[in-house]
Amino acid sequence: MSTRFRSVKGTRDLLPPETAVWNAVEACARRVFESYGYGEVRTPLLEDTGLFERGVGESSDIVGKEMYSFEDRKGRRVSLRPESTAAVGRAFIQHNLQELPPPVRLFYIGPHFRYERPQKGRYRQFHQIGAELLGDPGPHSDAEVILMLVEFLRQLEFRDLAVLVNTVGDEESRASFRAALVAYLEPHRERLGEDSRRRLETNPLRILDTKDPAERELLEAAPTLADHLSPASREHFDQVLAILERFEVPFEVAPRLVRGLDYYTKTVFEIVSKGLGSHDAVVGAGRYDGLIAELGGPPVEGIGFAIGQDRLIDVLPESFLAAVAGEPPVMLIPIGEEARVEGLAMAEALRAEGVAVVAELSGRSMRAALKQANRRGVRYVALVGEEEIASGELTLRDLESGEQETLSAAQAARRLKEQR
Ligand code: AMP
Questions:
Q1: Which of 6, 155, 291, 338 is the most buried (most CB within 10 A)?
Q2: Lowest-confidence range among 17-21, 56-60, 99-103?
């Protein structure tokens, strides 16, 4: 017996009608982002492994244990992209985009890969919708990016949105806070789990992300970054908050919000909504002023977000889903042999009038075709038989009411528009 292949663990097929939802979400992202002056960037799925080691950080979980990395046939170290900010940074540098009038606004949509334990909402191939604003250090950029993200989610009909926002400070603030945090945790080393003990050396700020209850308790009394903010970082953060207030964006300062990736500086944020739930983050966002220089480029600041599209789609409001589902197409049913071709011509004529049509092609009986129409959830069928061919018309039947009428393609299109 031959092997029946299945999709690789942690990856999945997206099929209709679900793909219509994916397309609608992507179309909404494009529309909203373009209205803020963003252009789409498409970077390769495959990058030099060193890019992520440098850009995301070797001590991060992503680089340490989640990347799909391999050597190609010539021994080059390559990885499937686990995120896109480093890749967008690489493209920015490679194409000298700092020569464009700043800031440069880019968005991306596409698959990413992390070798994580698959579970609901977590895949090995997952999808992100993200945006990056490069080349402006000021708080107005942070505010605009947040406003754009909120606008996108509102257009997806999320309600009760709130922005959780924090600052992780600039390099100076982080160095001072890091030292204070290590000094506080060091004497309690034995109360930390294995991961956190390791992070004490490699990346102490990440310990703040812990879900372990005992560690969380210990952290209650830990120093906070707020106490170590440089005056410049504090000023930046205050201005971001003032702009959010001006635009009446509901926000909350979340002092313990830190992001898992190494490159963040100053503003970091997340979005919560009743619909979005709190268990799994849907958006990762923040400023990364040092990244482009770290990747060997000019000292260009950046801020951006990445939305987990799979999780976003899991929690989409019913109202958005209903609007996407729309109306099923009209089904064209030919009656008799001659109508099998003439029926196709009528289907084309309806499409030219803007009506979506599925044509019955197999020559099955009208009874069998109507059964099919019911199974497909079709409401209107267009019947074409000898008489219709002679008059150049079709008979439009409403399967719900049983009423029918013989009309031209243009009249049928108008009738459908009125009734829907
Ligand atoms: P990050 O780049 O880690 O900040 O992730 C940004 C967003 O991508 C997260 O908030 C998730 O919604 C989504 N995401 C990250 N990893 C996965 C995964 N393995 N499966 C599904 N979504 C993911």
A1: 291
A2: 56-60
Asked whether the predicted pLDDT for residue 58 surpasses 70, the reply is yes
Q: How far is the CA of 11 from the centre of ligand 1 (A)?
A: 14
pLDDT score of 209: 78
Backbone angles phi, psi at 394, to 5 degrees: -140, 160
Q: Which atom of ligand 1 is nearest to the CA of 311?
A: 12
In a domain, 340, yes or no: yes
pLDDT in tens, 39-49: 999 999 999 99
pLDDT at 326: 84
Q: Which two tokens stand for residue 416?
A: 């459908």
Beta carbons within 8 Å of 78's beta carbon, 6+ residues apart? 46, 47, 48, 49, 69, 70, 71, 72
Amino acid in position 160: D
- Give nearest CA residue, ligand 1 atom 20: 122
Which among 254, 262, 269, 258 is positioned nearest to 208, based on CA atoms?
258
Examine the domain organization and report whether 311 and 408 are in the same domain: no
Q: What is the mean pLDDT of residues 342-353?
A: 97
Range of the domain at 256: 18-170+230-321
pLDDT of 260 reads: 56
Query: Cβ(283) to ligand 1 under 6 A?
Result: yes
Distance 114 CA to ligand 1 centre (A): 9
Asked, for residue 282, whether it belongs to a domain, the answer is yes
Is the C-beta atom of 306 inside 6 A of ligand 1?
yes
Q: Based on the domain organization, do 155 and 238 belong to the same domain?
A: yes
One domain, residues 37 and 155: yes
Specify the residue with its C-alpha closest to ligand 1, atom 15. Answer: 308
Q: Of 303, 321, 339, which residue sits at a domain end?
A: 321
CA of residue 183 to ligand 1 center, whole Å: 32
For range 231-242, the mean pLDDT: 96
pLDDT, one tens digit per residue, over 169-180 is 998 898 899 999
Looking at 278, 297, 321, which one is the last position of a domain? 321
- Decide if pLDDT at 259 tops 70: no
| Phi-psi category of residue 86: left, alpha or beta, with phi > 0 → left and psi -120 to 50 → alpha | alpha
Please give the Cα distance from 2 to 4 (Å, whole number): 6
Output the CA 337–ligand 1 centroid distance in Å.
Answer: 55
Give domain status of residue 349, yes or no. Answer: yes
